[in-house]
Amino acid sequence: MEICGLGPLTKNGNDILVAGTQTGDANTYNAMWGDSSGNSKGGADTFVFHDTGAAKVGTQNYIMDFDPTEHDHIQFIGVDGVTSFADLTFDTTTSGTITHAGADTVTLVGYTGALHASDFIL
């Protein structure tokens, strides 16, 4: 597979994915896949949500393939009011788990299992 002439994609897992940010009334939509659908290799993926000053990741963030058994992690950097696992709150629905980190929200699509401090990098 090739995207925009950048060469073939390798699916070796252990990916680091960084969410886009927004300022003011702008909207950012982040749908993040650590492993492509199909012939994915798994691996320990890290999904990074980094707020910097006025630039926030916001509330439209979706991790499409979170799997703690593959040692995936979610990292929050610079999120106001979030310095430990105790600062996070969770809502589980039939379609996934919503993680609230300060004013930011990340939905783990399809994942309804337990989350632990070891699943996060803070």
Can you offer a commentary on this structure?
By secondary structure, this protein is mostly beta strands. The protein has a domain at about 10-20 and about 45-115. The protein has strands at about 15-20, 30, 45-50, 60-65, 75, 90-95, 95-100, 105-110, 120. Strand 7 and strand 8 (about 105-110) form a beta hairpin. The N and C termini lie far apart (about 35 Å).
Can you give keywords for this protein?
mainly beta; 9 strands; 0% helix; disordered N terminus
Question: How do the helices and strands line up, and which of them pair or pack?
Answer:
Elements (H helix, E strand, L loop, with lengths): L15 E3 L11 E3 L13 E5 L10 E3 L9 E5 L10 E6 L2 E6 L2 E6 L10 E2 L1
Parallel strand pairs: 1-3, 2-4, 3-5, 4-8, 5-9
Antiparallel strand pairs: 6-7, 7-8
Total of helices: 0
* Structural class by sheet pairing and helices: mainly beta
Order of strands, main sheet, comes to 2-4-8-7-6
Mean pLDDT: 84
Biggest β-sheet description: 5 strands, mixed
**What fraction strand?**
25-35%
The tally of strands reads 9
Segments where pLDDT lies below 50 for 5+ residues? Answer: 1-10
Q: Encode the helix/strand succession as letters.
A: EEEEEEEEE
Determine Rg (CA atoms, Å).
Answer: 15 Å
Helix share, percent: under 10%
Distance between the termini: 34 Å
Apparent shape: globular
